[in-house]
């Protein structure tokens, strides 16, 4: 009599099938691990190290970020960008504050610090630009002169065609347009979109800006 207990028994002919399936699983794991290693290597090669604290609290000294290549037509207001320093062959990570046709003005605040004011396309209301969590400027720097640098007194200036106005998020510790003047849009080589190091903080970069209507006309 044949019993049902033998129905699930496999013979020697099944061993090659199990072995082949195991090799395929191992191969898939090795391939996935290889892709991860390649991705990490590519990120390490393409990422940029942040030196200094001029972009705090958005970015900190020693962190690494990944820029996404962009053309000058893709540069957006308030983007954090990788750019060449005007007049120097040095890379900076700064924030775009005003684009061609915008008006910009930096004036002392009502109590302390300073106010960065932007009027989009040079029309309508002025808006005050702030980065939540950023330290108040202890040394207000009135702006702007005709070339976009700091000035003796606050003055509204229109960003020229093909140029932009840029600042560091930590006003007291940043060399930016107040030092170098307007920058060329074609000096931007990438938009910073991802923090890759340290690992606990890795992830997409928060825009981290706030605009509120100003009482100024």
Explain what you see.
The chain has 217 residues and is of the alpha+beta class. The chain has helices at 15-46, 177-180, and strands at 48-49, 64-68, 80-84, 91-98, 103-108, 114-119, 127-130, 157-158, 163-167, 183-184, 188-197, 203-204, 210-213. Strands 1, 2, 3, 4, 9, 10, 11 and 12 form an 8-stranded antiparallel β-sheet that branches. A 5-stranded antiparallel β-sheet has the order 8-5-6-7-13, with no helix packed on it. The radius of gyration is 27 Å and the shape is globular. The model is unreliable at 1-10 and 34-39 (pLDDT under 50).
Descriptive keywords:
217 residues; alpha+beta; eight-stranded antiparallel beta sheet; five-stranded antiparallel beta sheet; 28% strand; disordered N terminus
Quaternary organisation: single chain
Radius of gyration: 27 Å
Q: Secondary-structure element order, as H and E? A: HEEEEEEEEEHEEEE
Number of helices: 2
Shape: globular
Distance between the termini: 101 Å
Q: Into which percent range does the helicity of residues fall? A: 10-25%
* pLDDT < 50 stretches: 1-10, 34-39
What structural class do you assign from the helix and strand content?
A: alpha+beta
């Amino acid at each position: 009599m044949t019993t049902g207990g033998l129905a699930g028994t496999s013979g020697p002919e099944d061993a090659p099938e199990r072995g082949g399936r195991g090799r395929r699983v191992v191969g898939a794991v090795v391939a996935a691990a290889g892709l991860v290693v390649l991705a990490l290597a590519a990120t390490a090669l393409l990422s940029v190290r942040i030196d200094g604290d001029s972009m705090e609290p958005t970015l900190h000294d020693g962190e690494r970020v990944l820029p996404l290549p962009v053309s000058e037509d893709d540069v957006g207001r308030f983007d954090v960008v990788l750019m060449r320093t005007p007049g120097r062959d040095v890379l900076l990570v700064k924030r775009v504050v005003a684009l061609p046709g915008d008006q910009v003005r930096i004036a002392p605040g009502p109590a302390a610090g300073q106010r960065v004011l932007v009027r989009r396309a040079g029309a309508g209301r002025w808006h005050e630009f702030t980065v939540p969590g950023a330290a108040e400027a202890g040394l207000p720097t009135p702006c702007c002169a005709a070339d976009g640098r700091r000035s003796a007194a606050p003055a509204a200036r229109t960003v020229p065609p093909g140029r932009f106005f840029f600042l560091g998020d930590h006003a007291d510790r940043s060399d930016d347009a107040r030092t170098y003047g307007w920058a060329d849009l074609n000096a931007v080589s990438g938009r910073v979109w991802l923090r890759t190091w340290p690992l606990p903080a890795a992830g997409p970069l928060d825009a981290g800006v706030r605009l509120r209507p100003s009482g100024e006309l």
